[in-house]
Design a protein that fits this description.
The protein has helices at about 20-45, 55-80, 90-115, 120-125, 130-145, 150-155, 160-165, 165-180, 185-210. The chain is mostly helical.
């Protein structure tokens, strides 16, 4: 039985500390974000990544890019559905992890797979549709990462929200990139596509429920 605060000698219940909750959540995000990189590094030096370690490294980094991008996009729906407004404080961190993984994913392809041969990289971007989609998604993520600070939010005002809708386009391109790359085994690309569709459906449903804005005369 839990102690009753009304009973003499019983310990009062401690109210949840919102700052501590966010700190713990950010710590967990950092741990989750760094774990795949550390695992890949250790596995690479121990030669535990199979017969094609470069391809596996690129694949895992790309998959985690989508995981963090979709997680960042899920923060606002979670806030609206649960009423936990403070969760918005971790969205930037998750989004920056998505961008970091996208950059590492591309650099691993450009450096480890193509040895930074610019002509071959440009040829791939032009001729191979999954690389075209992935590169376009990375380009769209650049302004999102740059304008994720509070200063840019203040400068852009309402335009900031319109700009950051590009996250849906970038995620859609990421899903296409993933789907076209794996070819036969489409289970995880379909999971990502359904997750993105669900997030978009929640956004549309919320917008329909909002009362129409009154026109100013």
């Amino acid at each position: 039985m839990k102690p009753d605060p009304a009973v003499p000698g019983a310990r009062p219940r401690r109210a949840a500390n919102p700052r501590r909750q966010i700190l713990l959540l950010k710590t967990a995000i950092w741990a989750i974000g760094l774990a795949p990189i550390l695992w890949l590094a250790v596995s690479f030096f121990q030669r535990n990544l199979g017969i094609n370690p470069v391809e596996k490294i690129i694949h895992i980094q790309g998959r985690w890019t989508l995981v963090f991008l979709l997680a960042a996009m899920a923060v606002t729906p979670i806030r609206r559905l649960t009423g936990w407004n403070r969760i918005i404080q971790v969205r930037r961190l998750i989004g920056l992890f998505a961008f970091a993984y996208a950059c590492i994913h591309f650099l691993a392809y450009a450096g480890m797979d193509q040895l930074f041969a610019l002509s071959y990289i440009l040829e791939d971007v032009r001729d191979r549709r999954y690389i075209t989609a992935g590169f376009a998604g990375l380009v769209l993520m650049i302004p999102l990462a740059v304008t994720s600070t509070r200063g840019w939010i203040r400068r852009l005002g309402k335009r900031w929200q319109r700009l950051h809708r590009l996250a849906y386009v970038a995620a859609g391109l990421g899903v296409l990139h993933y789907f076209w790359k794996v070819k036969g085994d489409t289970f995880w690309p379909l999971v990502a596509a359904l997750t993105l569709a669900g997030l978009f459906a929640v956004r549309v449903a919320y917008r329909k429920k909002r009362p129409p804005r009154k026109k100013q005369h």
